[in-house]
Design a protein that fits this description.
This protein is α/β, with parallel strands linked by helices and 305 residues long. The protein contains eleven helices and twelve strands. 34% of the residues lie in helices and 18% in strands. The longest helix has 22 residues.
Length: 305
């Protein structure tokens, strides 16, 4: 596996000119919502032109039925299929002029990756932006709810979260008596990057019935050595890969060098779809259930759609 893990986010956009926005729809009442940077964001209208700077947020907006209000997405936003038809604003370095030309009245983004000076400059354009920090499954649920509140899709958001919570509770009940295998989750292998306590993926592994061997490390995505992995002795190795990728003979050979590891010795090296697990959005339970089926093959864990 050579493709790099792309942390879902993009930098805010700056220009020296502000173009006029389309007239937004009025809302029944003004609301003030605190984002995950601790900012109080006031909304007097329903956003009509939304730019999403993260694939997971794009998926949430589509799941809330806001297709017609999404006017810009990143190059990495490929789901649902309709997202591919939306104007692209770039990848990790979005096109500033493109964003401004879309006349957004709301930008949604992931907190924790922006320079404060960039945000301060962006505020000069008086375009509301809202940041989230989906550091756990619960925070993902909260993100769905708050975006529903901001956009006037509260009922749809509440129903979506109710369904996801139901699936999570059902999974927990089915796995409560099963032993929890020790797992190495590989975000990338050159260098070897896994997930620590600061990542929502650590929470997902726990909910899928596993023990994350790098879960005690402070960084969200720590670089670890093979010496560390050998000491932790994982029973399962999970590789995050594109959905259409297969676990190649080359990849298997790469890990065969460490035959002392139970995961290698017992042939428990698996792939999971990075789009399902590495995106904190409405499909996150699909990813958790996929991982749980790999970790607990004897359990009755049929896909839920």
């Amino acid at each position: 596996m050579r493709s790099k893990f792309i942390i879902i986010a993009a930098l805010f956009l700056l220009t020296s000119h502000v173009l006029p926005f389309t007239l937004p729809a009025a809302r029944a009442e003004t609301i003030t919502v605190t984002d995950d940077l601790g900012r109080s964001v006031r909304f007097t209208t329903l956003p009509q032109r939304i730019v999403s700077l993260a694939p997971g947020l794009t998926e949430i907006l589509f799941s809330l039925g806001l297709d017609d209000r999404i006017v810009g997405v990143t190059d990495y936003c490929n789901y649902p299929p309709a997202a591919v038809t939306k104007p692209r604003v770039g990848g990790l370095n979005p096109n500033l002029e493109k964003i401004i030309s879309l006349h957004p009245d709301l930008i949604v983004a992931v907190a924790g990756i922006y320079q404060n000076q960039s945000l301060a400059r962006f505020e000069q354009f008086h375009v509301p932006y809202f940041t989230v920090d989906p550091s756990s499954i619960e925070k993902i649920f909260e993100t769905i709810l708050v975006l529903g509140k901001i956009t006037g899709a509260e009922e749809t958001a509440a129903e979506k979260v109710r369904q996801l919570r139901g699936r999570l509770n059902s999974l927990q009940q089915k796995l409560q008596s099963d032993p929890r295998p020790r797992l190495l989750y590989v975000v990338d292998d050159e260098p070897l990057i896994s997930v620590g306590k600061g990542s929502y993926l650590n929470d997902l592994i726990r909910e899928a019935g596993g023990v994350n061997i790098t879960g005690g490390l402070e960084k969200a995505y720590p670089i670890v050595s093979m010496e560390y992995v050998i000491r932790q002795n994982p029973e399962v190795i999970v590789l995050a890969m594109d959905a259409d990728q297969v676990l190649s003979d080359q990849e298997k050979h790469h890990w065969s060098r460490w035959s002392s590891l139970p995961a290698v010795r017992n042939g428990k090296i698996y792939k999971v779809s990075r789009d399902l697990l590495n995106r904190p959005g409405p499909r996150i339970l699909d990813g958790v259930e996929e991982l749980a089926r790999l970790l607990h093959p004897a359990a009755d864990l049929q896909p839920v759609r």
